[in-house]
Design brief:
CATH class of the largest domain: Alpha Beta
Number of strands: 14
Largest sheet: 8 strands, mixed
CATH superfamily of the largest domain: P-loop containing nucleotide triphosphate hydrolases
Radius of gyration: 23 Å
CATH topology of the largest domain: Rossmann fold
Helix content: 40-55%
């Protein structure tokens, strides 16, 4: 006899509740034990039911409903919460995740996304996934320097740690010119070479005491070796072992790499769940991205593994996002706005951008990107319509014919 997942639905819209129930009917082992039109007035009744899964819409009376979610997550510690909303604002997403939501789904619901999220939560509840060792490895990469790769890696790592409160490792695998510790004003006692030389004794206690904890966050930093001689003895096999060990301790591992396709960098890319390919909107950068996609294809990477990030984005750029997508045959995953003064100020002070101006457009962008890349937010984008092959796009088409 299979174990049933006792589920409660909270949504003020009856039509929406019926839709959720119809989707849940397609998931095995879901047992709906209650449905309510209001989380606030039904809080006491829901806690008495002790559900395994709570699906709650926060479109109405958002803050009050979030307050109830905080109470539910504290009093029903074994329950998982999925939040639904028409609101895509990054601040609302972050508030919901901090309140205790495991997933954030944007309405109108996409059936496949909803069922995928429920299946994932169901596996957690049934113990099919070890929630303490589940880890996502994300590598920031560009085969051209000066794209802002290190800035993105460091700010993203800080924001994921702040958002999820889970253990996050930021690893500097740029063995020639690593700058992660400079960006965060750290002077670690240990580095990658020390950890690699002690792989046989590594456990959670060793890692957490060796990596440099960033202030009072759940972020831990592993610095690049101070000397090139120490870096040269680190092998690709060492990097694979290191990443696997980090997976066993951390929920997220963010890797900053060199801008070259050497063996160690490719090893890091091979062992990553996601690759953030960093570009800016100019011709040399886009051509370099073409080369990256060609190599990624030869390496056998799935398209979903590559997330194209446009850095220093300005709406009035001569080259348009749609043109880049058509040329590369790949959607832009996220655009980080151009805010030179905030970035330079943060770099010079050795702090994340959010410490300089929490409400700046670029600080908000890093928080939103962190939400998108965390395991708690499902996002669906519509594909752009095909554009005429002219202007910038035409440059690439003509090149292909030569």
């Amino acid at each position: 006899m299979s174990i049933k997942i006792d589920t409660v639905i909270i949504d003020s819209d009856q039509v929406s509740r019926e839709l959720v129930k119809s989707y849940l009917a397609r998931v095995e082992d879901i047992n709906i034990i209650g449905e309510f039109d209001d989380a606030i007035n039904s809080y006491a009744e829901i806690t008495e039911m002790h559900p395994n899964l709570v699906i709650v819409d926060i479109s109405q009376r958002t803050q009050l409903t979030l307050d109830i979610i905080v109470k539910l997550s504290k009093n029903l510690r074994n329950a998982k919460i999925i939040v639904l909303s028409y609101d895509m604002d990054s601040q609302t997403v972050i508030k919901a995740l901090r309140a205790g939501a495991r997933e954030y789904l944007v309405k109108p619901l996409i059936e496949a996304d909803f069922i995928e999220s429920v299946e994932k939560i169901k596996d957690l509840i049934l113990g099919n996934i070890n929630d303490t060792t589940k880890c996502k490895v994300i590598t920031a990469f560009s085969n051209k320097g000066g794209m802002g790769k290190t800035s993105i890696a460091t700010n993203l790592a800080v924001e994921i740690a702040n958002l999820t409160n889970e253990k996050v490792a930021l690893v500097d695998l740029n063995f020639q010119m690593g700058d992660v510790t400079t960006f965060l004003d750290l002077n670690p006692a240990f580095d990658t070479s020390y950890v690699v030389n002690n792989l046989e004794r590594i456990d959670e206690t060793f890692l957490l005491s060796t990596l440099e904890k960033y202030k009072d966050t759940s972020l831990y930093v592993l610095a690049d070796p101070p000397d090139l001689e120490q870096a040269e003895v680190i092998t690709s096999e060492n990097i694979t072992t290191l990443i696997n060990v980090l997976r066993s301790v951390f929920s997220y591992v963010i890797i900053d790499t060199t801008s070259s396709f050497d063996g160690k960098t490719i090893t890091a890319l091979d062992n990553s769940d996601l690759i953030l390919l960093i570009a800016v909107l100019n011709l040399p950068s886009v051509r370099n991205c073409q080369r990256c996609f060609d190599l990624f294809k030869r390496l056998g990477y799935q398209k979903d593994k590559i997330k194209l990030i446009v850095n220093r984005y300005m709406e009035n750029d001569e080259i348009k996002i749609e043109d880049v997508e058509d040329v590369l045959g790949h959607n832009v995953y996220y655009k980080i706005p151009n805010n030179y003064f905030a970035i330079i100020n943060a770099m010079n002070k050795g702090v994340p951008v959010s410490d300089i101006n929490h409400q700046s457009n670029i600080a908000k962008a890093f928080r939103e990107l962190a939400a998108l890349l965390s395991d708690n937010y499902t996002y669906t984008s519509t594909k752009h319509a095909k554009r005429e092959e002219q202007g910038f796009l035409g440059l690439f088409k003509k090149k292909e014919k030569k």
